[in-house]
Records
---
Amino acid sequence: MSAATHETEHHTSLGVDNRKLLMWIFLASECLFFGSLLSTYLIFKGESLSGPGTDIFAFEITSISTFVLLMSSLSMVLAVYGAQHGQLGLMKLMLLCTILLGLVFLGFQVYEFKTFASEGLTLSTNQFGASFYILTGFHGCHVGVGVLYLSSLLISSVRRNGIGKETPLYIDIGGLYWHFVDIVWIVLFTVVYLIPAY
Amino acid sequence: MATATDGVGTVQAEQSKVWEWLTTVDHKKIGTMYGITGFTYFLISGLTALAIRTQLAVPNGNVLSAELYNQFFTMHALMMIFLAIMPMGASFFNYFIPLQIGARDVAFPRLNALSYWVFLSGSLILFSSFFLGGAPDAGWFAYAPLTDAKYSVGSGLDFYCVGLIILGLSSLMASLNFAVTILNMRAPGMTMMRLPVYMWMTLVVSFLLILSLPIVTVALVMLYFDRNFTTNFFTPETGGDPILWQHLFWLFGHPEVYVLILPSMGIVSEVIPVFSRKPLFGYAAIVFAGASIGVLGFGVWAHHMFTTGLGTVPALVFSATTMGIGVPTGVKIFNWLSTMYGGSIRFTTSMYFAVAFIAMFTIGGISGVMHASPAVDSQHQDTYFVVAHIHYVLFGGAIMGIFSGIFYWWPKMTGRFLSEISGKWSFWVMFAGMNLTFFPMHFLGVSGMPRRIYTYDEGFGWDDWNMVATIGSYLIGVSILIFLINVFRTMRQPATAPDNPWDAPTLEWATSSPPPEHDFDVVPEVHSSMPLWTNREMGIVTPEAPEGLHIHLPPSSYMPLILAIGVGLIGVGLLSHLALVGIGVAISTYGVWGWSIEPTD
Ligand SMILES: [Cu+2]
């Protein structure tokens, strides 16, 4: 009986929850957003008239921050696992882990930007600088939004009147966003940092 | 407080009425607000067009200065596209998506309200530029490097960037909402291939916006950075690439054309079968044609750029894809004509506008295919021929379709019929006016008159046709006046419209006119693509409302309004002082927080 009411409550034509479908379609939109930024970067690649180019990259440091972000995806997977299997302790711990790893990644990015700026690469130095900062900067903003998003999920899963029985769904949708932001970084890391290195 | 003595109650009732609209999450109310706002901007934008035509009526006109002229033609386009046609489309989307698919509301009612309020704040920011140091004046496509801070000194182009980013955000949220609603909230039995064609076109439009808005957002952000934060994305002297702007802009701009026209195609696909008393000819063909227009629409953008020196192979490819997109468009036209063929046609005003849509859109479509040839296009580039083309598509197409929809759905939305006699007057005056205005522009273009010039000398042979075009534009103005009088007189009549006055087959006609707040007493079950025609002897198929009907509706919320004010303040801050951005972020944060903790049932 309770199963039947539960089903009518959440009945949708495609069988996917509305909120989850919204996130999927939104991520499609985000693909075009990062696609446009990345195309801009590639169009201007090697077109620098002056100033530092891709040789400015400190490859090892960015590899470490990439590893950190990859690990955050792992902890996100575990958080979703915990939410879906009723292990709320694991879920909260892993959410916290993901948030902290995201913050560490952002710290690396701030450090990187500061170093580059001190080495003379700014928004106005050349096309490489402008398109690099705007591309990776927007990715950083997405990580930042993700950190806030996951934090609010963590807080509301702790509060008594929080997301309650819909926790697995909310964590799942948050995970979709987080993994997407990670995948974007893997593409950026490959195209921006890895390929010029070889 | 004179009113305090004679009735605090009325004042409070008034206030709660305003509060009700400010906090509503009802798709019908939000649709109404979109419609009224959109039509207001349609009137304002029409006035700018009249000023432009007055300036051009005779050689060496001196009604507008060159600066004001540039602002007027730029804002005419921006307002018509983003503040008039798109919101009027969104108005019908809002109102009729749940009604046509048999749902009680859209998937995310509060997000829907947020879309409207963010639209309003973005539109006010864009419009206020007129009074705050000059509106954008570089054309709606804002080609670089003209938009560079060096050549566009005022803040008009900053208003352009910030306004369009905010309007894009609003459209994105609305489109996500519509797409999820159509995909996921259909009544039992309403399969995708039983959706009304209008819903299919809405779905295609939503996906076009979802996939094209992020591209122009990136371009606008880069332009804003160029103007304010010393980057050089589009300035050629310092290694920037003005052609990149054109690519990014038209990657959005061409799908945007379909965003404007597909809703009207959907409306016409509803209207023509109803008034021909015949099912739509080739439902599947028209659906797939619409969907393939949406897909192909992303592969034709460079036909706007033939004269930039693309090279032979890209020019050929984009020429071929552009001609190719004429095929599904032609399929639709043949489907509409075949629907009318052999039908018993009722010539209502709505049908007049629908038939005029087919004829006028075909003219615009044909001149569009002419521009698909790079050789022809490079002759027509930047002449009045292009102006004639887009106005046949957007006025003869989009606007005619919207008017067809207004006359068709007015009884459903208000319970009152617009006057048919007055309606036909407004139709004929508008039809004559638009052809007088825009057809001569073909001749002007071919005889070499460039677009966007604020005046011209005598002796080029342009004088007569310009005068004709100006007379035509005033006729359009008269037709709009006739329509407005019709609206005001109609709204003072008693509401007499029955549930299904046109004997139409789709679900919105299965509920009362105007619909109750919960749309349907009982969500109907659907067995065909024309539910109200499948069982005609039974009349409307919805079962009786059960005893003690209680339908749970989402509570109203003021958080969308708060959040939109926050977003608007961020926009204002980007145009004035960064401190305001901080306040805007704070208010938005409060809005998001309040949004996420307020109860939704
Ligand atoms: Cu185009």
---
Amino acid sequence: MNPFKILELEPRFDLDLDAAEHRHRELSRALHPDRFVGRPASERRLALSRAIEVNEAWRTLRDPVRRAEALLNLHGIDSGETSSAKADPELLMEMMEQREALAETRASKDLPRLRDLSATMRDRQARVLDALTKAFSHDPQTALPVLAELRYVRRFLEEASALEDELL
Amino acid sequence: MAYSNKVIDHYENPRNVGSMDKNDDNVGTGLVGAPACGDVMRLQIRVDDDGKISDAKFKTFGCGSAIASSSLATEWLKGRTLEEATKIKNRDIAEELNLPPVKIHCSVLAEDAIKSAIEDFRRKQKAKRALQTQTQDDPEPAQEAQETPNAPSEGKRSLPIVSSQPER
Ligand code: FES
């Protein structure tokens, strides 16, 4: 299922998220069950299943990892876990170090340090997202390693924000 | 999702957490990541001159199944030859720990880490042999490691013994 098509949007990585959200809301409203009261059951069923599709499409597109996967899918490129070529050793080394640093802030309950680490990683995320936009506008095949990097970066950020909740 | 008792046991009392000096010629380091979830794992082996793995350590930033898989893997590795170590498969780990299908990639991570640690060790040994052959001024095909007791060997630097970091 092509989420771009469902929301009638141009398939691109640097999607205007506000516009996409707006489209999602519009379509959801138009498909709302309240508007189909008294209509034939088949029509009601159809509207319901379209509403579900629209929701799912928005959930996919708002998440950069899933958006990238959807785009790769459109280009016929397998992005599943089995397709992933061996990660760049340097990237793994960096991520290991960052995760270790994160574990240290848990042990030392060092909130400022934690925020530092997160800020650095968020900058990195911004760069990776830019790189993905470029990759998709040139050669989608080159997006695969960048997407892998994004997954590691986002995993770090998830862990960091969970830790922040814990320390607060 | 319910974890099996064995997973919980390894998760709560992980065996062999820690690290060894990655620059030690007798230590092989495997660093791997799971692009599916963005988690990372480091597994190290110390191989004695008799070719057996005398020690194994790991550090995993991942889910409970990944921690349990790597903990179990380090237990299984000790006392094995490299040849025997390559026979440890993710299937065996997943079976021992009763991992559900969605957690298989976590045990795959452990298998990859073992392979990558062995590769690293072998690569180091090869580089060391090449260095020894090179530094011997003997034009004859080098009979390596046949130094006379009173001649200081050039190729074989004695490596500082760095004790592994304290376990946490
Ligand atoms: S979910 Fe990431 S290693 Fe298990």
